[in-house]
């Protein structure tokens, strides 16, 4: 299972997502290491290998699933020890099956559990013995270590699934000598009916305070250099260098960018030069060579938030432009700053995030909510 263990590597200029799990490598002694698994089917176990090469390393014991009592083991730069009565449920076949499942998951494909549940759905829709046999085979194709988790039910585990694919009068493979009676089988069928209803309800459920993700497509606020205001500015109005004077602390600045750069410096002359610059990039140049205010790096995000609030509360027409973006994610370009700009996914997009915050505050004000009204 992937969980939160996400990583990636770069291949031919593109990002290949991956995950990792612990494993032992046998190179004379045993070494505890990380096994990296990538969506393109390559596995890093002290060197990138294909799935077929990884299988050979499993079969030869280079990737170890047997841990002999008394063998030396090491975790690099951490500890070394001898195994004493070691126990592992893994076999080469199980680990290979789990890795195959992980590659499917990384690619958004149904893994062995997904394929089994699809076969169960087909059986329930048409409960023939042929379809039961297909579902049974799919169940046993799930790695044994993962079958308990197939239904995501930690109370019942996979018992209803076993019962369903075994059928009335059949012997449970996990409990030799125990047969499925009609009552338990009927309960299993009812369980899957309830499960389907729960699943449909969960998919239809909307969080009480609204959806977790935007419903509108993202809006890219491209880097532009507007020279003058417009009657219909569109998204360029969301740029910090858009000519919209802001009154802050008794001074009026031609744009948010002018105010930001003026406030960033402790030098009074540079501050005045930034305020009075004819263009936003000239304001930046005026302040860039001067000393920053003490603590500026930690304070700058709060300063920008205040400046954006000033811009959109002092210019209702521009506030309308911002509100018209709905709940879209705002992706802001700033090639001069990886802090403020998204810059093709390489930056932190703080300007875009703060624009979304101010947009929400404006919406709260319209709704008469709390301090924003």
Low-confidence stretches: none
Largest pleated sheet: 8 strands, mixed
- Choose one word for the global shape: elongated
Q: What separation lies between the terminal Cα atoms?
A: 47 Å
Quickly give the structural class.
Answer: alpha+beta
| Helical residue percent band | 40-55%
Arithmetic mean pLDDT? 93
Number of strands: 12
Give the H and E element order.
Answer: EEEEEHEEEHHHHHEEEHHHHHEH
Q: Determine the strand fraction and express it as a percent band.
A: 15-25%
Radius of gyration: 30 Å
Number of helices: 12
Q: Could you explain the architecture of this structure?
A:
The protein has 373 residues and is α+β, with helices and mostly antiparallel strands. It has helices spanning 51-60, 92-106, 112-125, 129-141, 159-166, 182-204, 256-264, 268-276, 280-288, 296-314, 316-323, 350-366; strands at residues 6-11, 14-27, 29-38, 43-44, 48-49, 63-64, 72-75, 79-82, 219-221, 246-248, 251-253, 330-332. Strands 1, 2, 3, 4, 5, 6, 7 and 8 form an eight-stranded mixed sheet that branches. Strands 9-12 form a two-stranded parallel sheet. Strands 10-11 form a two-stranded antiparallel sheet. A hairpin with a 4-residue loop joins strand 3 and strand 4. Helix 3 packs antiparallel against helix 4 (129-141) and helix 7 runs parallel beside helix 9. The mean pLDDT is 93.
């Amino acid at each position: 299972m992937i969980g939160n263990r996400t990583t990636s590597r770069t291949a031919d200029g593109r990002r290949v997502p991956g995950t990792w799990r612990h494993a032992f490598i046998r190179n004379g002694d045993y070494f505890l290491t990380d096994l990296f698994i990538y969506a393109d089917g390559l596995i890093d176990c002290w060197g990138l290998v294909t799935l077929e090469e990884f299988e050979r390393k499993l079969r030869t014991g280079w990737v170890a699933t047997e841990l002999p009592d008394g063998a030396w083991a090491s975790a690099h730069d951490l500890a070394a020890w001898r195994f004493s009565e070691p126990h592992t449920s893994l076999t080469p076949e199980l680990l290979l099956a789990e890795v195959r499942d992980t590659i499917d998951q990384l690619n958004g494909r149904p893994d062995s559990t997904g394929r089994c549940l699809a076969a169960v759905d087909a059986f329930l829709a048409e409960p023939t013995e042929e379809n039961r046999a297909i579902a049974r085979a799919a169940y046993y194709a799930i790695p044994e270590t993962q079958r308990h988790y197939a239904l995501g039910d930690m109370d019942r585990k996979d018992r209803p699934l076993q019962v369903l694919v075994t059928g009335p009068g059949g012997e449970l493979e996990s409990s030799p000598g125990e047969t499925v009676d009609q009552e338990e089988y009927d309960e299993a069928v009812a369980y899957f009916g309830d499960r389907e209803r729960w699943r449909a309800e969960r998919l239809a459920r909307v969080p009480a305070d609204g959806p977790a993700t935007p419903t509108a497509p993202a809006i890219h606020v491209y880097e532009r250099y507007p020279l003058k205001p417009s009657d219909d500015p569109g998204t360029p109005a969301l740029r910090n260098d858009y000519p919209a004077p802001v009154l802050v602390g008794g001074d009026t600045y031609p744009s948010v960018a002018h105010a930001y750069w003026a406030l960033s410096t402790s030098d009074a002359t540079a501050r005045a030069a930034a305020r009075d610059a004819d263009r936003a990039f000239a304001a930046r140049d005026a302040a860039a060579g001067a000393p920053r205010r003490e603590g500026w790096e930690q304070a700058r995000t709060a300063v920008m938030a205040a400046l954006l609030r000033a811009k959109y509360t002092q210019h209702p027409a521009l506030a309308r432009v911002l509100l018209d973006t709905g709940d879209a994610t705002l992706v802001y370009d700033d090639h001069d700053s990886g802090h403020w700009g998204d810059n093709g996914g390489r930056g932190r997009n703080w300007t875009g995030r703060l624009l979304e915050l101010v947009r929400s505050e404006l919406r709260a004000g319209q709704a008469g909510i709390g301090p924003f009204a």
